[in-house]
Amino acid sequence: MLITRSNKKLFVPFVCFIFTTVMLSAHAGQLNIQLENDGIFAKDGNYTNGFALAWESMPELIQQHDNPTNMPKLFQLQYFIRLPLTQIQSAWGMKISQRMWTPDNITIITLQIDERPYAGLFEIESHTADYGPKFAQKNWLALGITGVKSKAEYIQTKVHQLIDSIPPLGWQYQVGEQVTLQLAYEIDALLFRSKEYSNKYMDKHQWEVSSYSHLSLGNFNTEASVGLLLRWGTRLNNTFGRLSSHFGHTGNTTQVENSNSFTVYSSLQFGYRFNDLTIEGELPYESHLDIQHNQAKAMLGMRWTLGNYAITWSLNSYTRAYNGDNKSWHSYGSLMLSCAI
């Protein structure tokens, strides 16, 4: 028992060590830091915070039957979960992340059986990606842990102390410890792209409409969704597929030839969620919640890539996760900073 507890205490440091080792062993890539929080709307509750530290390799142009030469063998096994494409840029990467969910009122110390429970998730994830001017595909494999070992309670408590905000008082009732395994796949297809226009304010700008579908399988959640993405900006063919509905993912744009670009985008997504551990996970009390299977999400954002740096910012809204939620929509802000290394 003592050995087991010691190993669990080392889980998060071990994951961080693996991430750093893989990143430093690569020759080049793009490092991303993402922060998501609902505080921009002056509220806590539901999906309340997310943090991701991610890295993606420099894209490599390959032919249909070739494998990326710089991709490690372990990632090449994951790379087989894809459709064969010609003349695409392939990349691979890793991510460590933490997300947390809380009830709307975090000042209540007693049970809230009719509210979303406290839940945290810590993950390490690998991905491979193919990017083309009209077609893109990505897949992700993630290992995570919920409960106390996710460190969500610790992070939220410390941050609220730092900013002198209301302390969360109900984490003793959080979703129990559970190891999670997730596999996800997303495909993007261009529907229309306009020709390039120039004016005195911006050169070679255009707009496009694309569709995407996302499938996530695992014991944390299983969900299928489809969506439409509208983008307006410059050099859209060079950055197609870099945006994603998958948490914490952004493609490498700082190391794409002629990568200086500006993009405004908006998306609308509909899906069906089969299970959700943040709602249906093991609790120290009997919850009265039922998962809301039908889901929708809307997003409005911008991305600016300038040389070796990029910034991505968005406002996101999503429908209720459980039946009985008195709010039909919830929102949060997202900020990602990227740089070439």
Automatic annotation (TrEMBL):
Assigned keywords, A-Z: Signal
Stretch forming the signal peptide: 1-28
This protein's name: DUF2219 domain-containing protein
Organism: Colwellia psychrerythraea (Vibrio psychroerythus)
Lineage: Bacteria, Pseudomonadati, Pseudomonadota, Gammaproteobacteria, Alteromonadales
